[in-house]
Amino acid sequence: MNIQWYPGHMTKAVRMMQEDIKLIDIVIELLDARVPSSSKNPDIDTLAKNKFRLILLNKADLADPEVTKKWTEYYQAKGISVLNINARSGAGMKSITETIRETCKEKIERDRKRGILNRPLRAMIVGIPNVGKSTFINSYAGKACTKTGNKPGVTKGKQWIHVNKQVELLDTPGILWPKFEDQEVGIRLAYIGSIKDDILNVQELALLFISFMVKRYPQVLQGQYEVDESLEPYQILQQIAENRHCLLKGEQYDLDKAAMILLENYRNGKLGRISLELPDEE
Q1: Is residue 93 part of a domain?
Q2: Which of 24, 50, 136, 234 is the most buried (most CB within 10 A)?
């Protein structure tokens, strides 16, 4: 499976970020807690060089808590502040402003010595498409100040958002890098819905996901769909189709429909808290 997706507006977004970064005190990077490495745009490390950093592991409620703990320790060891949050429910959101101020304390102290008091810290919020950035901003600011949607690419332009007296946010469009050097990255992003399903072979994607689940989280598929995990992935997908009544005319299995059921069940947490990668796989 070869996945490439880089809409033209994303090239423009990178240029905009390069121009705006000089206005910023801290870069807040929103990652998907299920795939902290694959959902991390390597361009951001270059763009955010010499800026204070905060990583928010969003959708932590969908990720394996033991694995998320390892990722938190991994990024903290690199000197980056990390918080685990669920922007949709608000879990972990209350400590964000305090963490931003703590991370930027050197900047606050420099301003104080120059007689600049109570100036809001300016933060740029970045993240790949569909990582929950708009939902996070609306939750953090306490109002519906951005468009939200569960499809990649809803945010197309930049906007400043006044969060409170202490923080102002510069929102940016979600950006992917032009080419996935590691196809596993593209596949993991496809699993979580960061790449549009209509450009994917969902049946092939589901077969890869079944192989992963049998290896990393055994018995989950068996418990959810009453399948035999000792079978080949294609046979397991057929069993899912049969057990979920995904049939075409002539009693043929509708494997595309079964594949989408499986992927959607994973994305919305019905399969449980499942992480797709570990720090030691970096």
Answers
A1: yes
A2: 136
